[in-house]
Structure prediction request, 452 residues.
Amino acid sequence: MGWRFSSGPDAKVQRFTRSVHFDKRLYREDIAGSIAHARMLSEIGVLTAKEFSAIEKGLRQIEKEIEAGTFVWSEAREDVHMNIEAALTERTPAGAKLHTGRSRNDQVATDMRLWVKHQIAVDLSLLARMQKALVQWATAQSQVLIPGYTHLQRAQPVYLAHHLLAYVEMFDRDRGRLQDCVKRVDVLPLGSGALAGSTIPLQRERVAELLGFASVTRNSLDAVSDRDFMLEYAAANAVTAVHLSRLAEDLILWSSAEFGFIRIGDAFTTGSSLMPQKKNPDVAEITRGKSGRVIGDLMALLTLVKGLPMTYNRDLQEDKERLFDSVDTVQETLDVMAAMLGDIRVNEEACARAVADPLLLATDVADALVLSGVAFRHAHEIVGQAVACAEKLGCPLSKLPLSEWRKIHPPMEPKTLEVFDVEKALARRRMTGAPGARQVRAELARWAKKLG
Ligand code: ARG
Prediction:
């Protein structure tokens, strides 16, 4: 490109350096940015009103053609920016003035920021839909109890709704991270030129206003080379992907014969090509798998930026595919997982069977001993011995005779052992954040209201 070269690029080089095959998806942002820039140029007298309107008309026409699929993209024109500008200049001579005071360095940074702002708005609504799907499921099954697990060992009983609401909290933090990130995305780099601004008296604030940016960047060197906003966004996506992966893992476990807590609808499972009886939770498994790829996108972006000298370097062209992949993957996964949650049946009997194990209430006996004045460490030891004794006698902890308890702890009162009713045990968990029935109901109502 340009008059200083005696030959065009080698075909291999052209193929190697082009980006139009992936950055053409920025056409809308690129055109919006160009129209705002041109409008400002006309306002400061660099373009006549006629030139501006020819540019605007030409760009809108190009946009329509791209949308209709009739625009001819040229690999020789390297990227989305040059394709659009060259096509415009073919249509109107005023096109040759569009790039005044602008470089592709500040242009691509602007396009990406516009694109990210739009995508974050999409993510926020997809996350809210995911949260709603969880709250709906939790509300429909609000009476169902399951064991809560630590170390994947049955620990203490909780409502299924409480477990699902844990994910609602996680996805809410994901929304918060995006809302925070967007503040730093919402800054206009255009007007920074290639790296050192321009001698033309550009009205940057005016362009920001036209494009809906909250402010303009304060350092031209930083503005053309800063990719923090992409790193933050990719990091937020990676956390969301990890949350989705954990949810997927729970669903995979719960749908196994070993747990049997849920059955995922046929539309969201697949069969085996060999074993006729199989019904596999592939959507959940692929979700778990995709988290690796979204984490990889973040690592690639961090590594890309890490060794770059100031300011723009062509390496940065590699940022797009990784960020696009991160965004596309998370959005598609949120969409399919939210739909799948609406097609899950709970096997209430299997849940009831799993939660009926009186050992899940061993901690409640220790708590009851504490409330009767025994020190917790001592209470822990008493119940531990009782569990071992019940195991030896082959009887459930709730059926261990008072006489056996008294061998371990002579002052044991029958009242202290009246803790083996799961519903009552849950009702005793009353603080904020606890899995008690009232708390869970209140949380479900709070989320339903908040999510609208
Ligand atoms: N396609 C390039 C990118 O994505 C646009 C900027 C090119 N700038 C340059 N000085 N060659 O980074």
About this structure: Strands lie at 145-150, 153-159, 187-188, 215-216, 262-264, 344-346. The pocket of arginine is lined by residues 19, 23, 79, 104-105, 108, 314, 316-317 (CB under 6 Å).
